[in-house]
Amino acid sequence: MINQGSEVTDPKQNEITKIDVASSIEIANTQQKINVSTNSNEKWTDVIKRRKKRNMIIGTNNSKGIQGVPKCSPLHVCRLKPDTTAKELENRLKNNFPEVRCEILNFKGLDMYASFKVSIFENNYKKPWTYGHSDPI
User: Fold this and answer.
1) Per-domain boundaries in the chain
2) In this predicted structure, what is the pLDDT of residue 26?
3) Which of 34, 78, 98, 103 could form an S-S bond across to 117 if both were Cys, CB 3.0 to 4.6 Å?
4) pLDDT > 70 in the chain, percent
């Protein structure tokens, strides 16, 4: 289309689409909500997360088929000689912790020192700290 000033204009440029109308309405509604919330004198309330309660069965078991075991606590033992094996550490700790399980942890510094995950029963968890520095385990 040609105007009097010899400028060419596109007739579609002046059309308003449904998307433009929907966006404008959404922006206006959002702005209205912001104005309402900033003008109100209400105090903020804390949102409390509610946990779903699980049904637990507590009791005794008289059958010998299924039995529970004590909970295990993992400990991290590190800075031992690099050639130390899990079996050596397990044999060393068996006297005080018969249930002990040792697992070597692999990492980049294997040539510097060895690290292990040592699992013991939870009821023995405080036992390693009851020894003095001069008392070997």
Assistant:
1) 72-130
2) 81
3) 103
4) 69
The Cα 120–Cα 97 span in angstroms is: 7
- What is 6-63 written as a DSSP string? S-B--GGGG---HHHHHHHHHHHHHHHHHHHHHH--PPP-PPPPPPPPPP--------
CA quadruple 128, 130, 133, 137: dihedral sign: negative
CATH match of 72-130 with 3.40.50: no
Structural contact between residues 75 and 115, judged by C-beta atoms closer than 8 angstroms: no
pLDDT tens figures, 15-61: 667 677 777 778 877 776 665 555 556 677 778 888 888 887 777 77
Q: What does the alpha-carbon distance between residue 18 and residue 13 come to, in Å, rounded to a whole number?
A: 14
The whole-number pLDDT of residue 125 equals 79
Q: Residue 12 is encoded by which pair of tokens?
A: 């579609």
Distance CA(79)–CA(60), nearest Å, equals 43
Instruction: Give the tokens for residue 100.
Output: 């002990």
- 0.90 exceeded by the pTM? no
